[in-house]
């Protein structure tokens, strides 16, 4: 009888484990992706995402060994494609003011039934838009083209296979990022489930993999921001991992180069910092000197990654063109204009920020198709509220789901993770990276797409901000860990319901935009 009573007493003193939905976000993300197969893979009409024809042509050029577009007599470069593919582009993506109205179900059936195969005879050239981009983010699409050639499929079947390969790679990288993330995981989950993100995943665009790489950089940063490394080798592996992923991302789109600052912030082993402190000196400067010496290798690696990440941009754009295809735009004349009229150029950028911020925000959340399929207003409000709520939930003290038990827990009391605050340096760096990257995005579009001297900026869309948006999780003040049970499960459940409703709305919008006309 005594043994039974003692067993019952021991059982009641065991820590009560509560179900934490935040720790299951990677699996929940895969469920959202499975639901998105209907709207984005089946109902989203072919060649309706931004620059889809040029993205298709870029992947096709890579399979032939043409990593940079062919030069034309007028200085622009482009991509040579077979005439049959050009006809497919014309059928699905006829150039006009309203791109979404150029597609009918009859055309879809016609091109599905016609056996127009991939050809190696090049006969027409497309605009330059994607010809200078680095090939890394096009490897899944290029692999799909090679498989289509081997299987001798139709062009439209090849297109859908490219979308599937692109989605598999982007979702796999995003899933790994979610598994790695600690601080800010809920916000990362919400960003990866946005309609714009999933639409680009299920397309032939390189933007899908670029967004996934941005998520992976954040996942690594979130994991290493509060990590304590046992030795110098573990610290160096973390620095190299972040540098490699950030370099690949910057090589694909140079405007994210401020991300190379983050690996420098990873804290080296405490023993190493103390050993490198100047003998007989104390205070802030001595501590700073020791930290800089401990981070010396990380600083050198990040500096080395800068020219490596910019190499393709310099080479690609040098071969690419010396002007711009947009009427009145010219990179070099725009640069001279900025130098001569810095005030007017700054005013144009400020005018774009103030006048187009709503358009950028809505296209970041879900202005689909070729920026022509708008969702109901309440969807944008719901998605915005979801991101804000997830950012707050994700600001709980690290770690959320599995942590060391608190040393102050008494027998019979639930054990909480040991709180670990996010260092202030990471918050400041995240703010700097976001601001600098946003300015580079706007400036790049001002140089390439905006006519010289225009009082605003053309070409900026919300999808360009998605790779750096997860860093906003570092800017939210961390809330006490005691609120975890009160908020996390309910917030994530409500946001998940909102995302499911948004996906259903996207399906209906695609149905009416492309199929029921």
Report what the structure shows.
- α4 (52-63) packs across α7 (139-151), α8 (155-180) runs parallel beside α11 and α9 (185-192) runs antiparallel to α18.
- The chain has a three-stranded antiparallel β-sheet with strand order 1-2-3.
- With 517 residues, it is mainly α.
- It has 20 helices and three strands.
Write the layout of secondary structure elements.
Blueprint: H1 2-13, H2 25-35, H3 37-43, H4 52-63, E1 70-71, E2 77-81, H5 83-92, H6 105-113, E3 124-126, H7 139-151, H8 155-180, H9 185-192, H10 195-201, H11 207-224, H12 232-252, H13 270-275, H14 284-294, H15 296-320, H16 331-340, H17 342-365, H18 377-393, H19 424-448, H20 484-515
Antiparallel strand pairs: 1-2, 2-3
Task: Describe this protein with a few key phrases.
517 residues; mainly alpha; 3-stranded antiparallel beta sheet; 20 helices
Order of helices and strands: HHHHEEHHEHHHHHHHHHHHHHH
Strand order of the largest sheet: 1-2-3
Give the low-pLDDT segments: 4-17, 94-117, 273-281, 397-418
Helix/strand/pairing category: mainly alpha
Number of strands: 3
Q: Quick one: overall form?
A: globular
Tell me the fraction of residues in β-strands, as a range: under 5%
What's the average pLDDT? 78
- Main pleated sheet: 3 strands, antiparallel
Radius of gyration: 25 Å
Question: Which percent bin holds the helix content?
Answer: 55-70%
Number of helical runs? 20
Distance between the termini: 78 Å
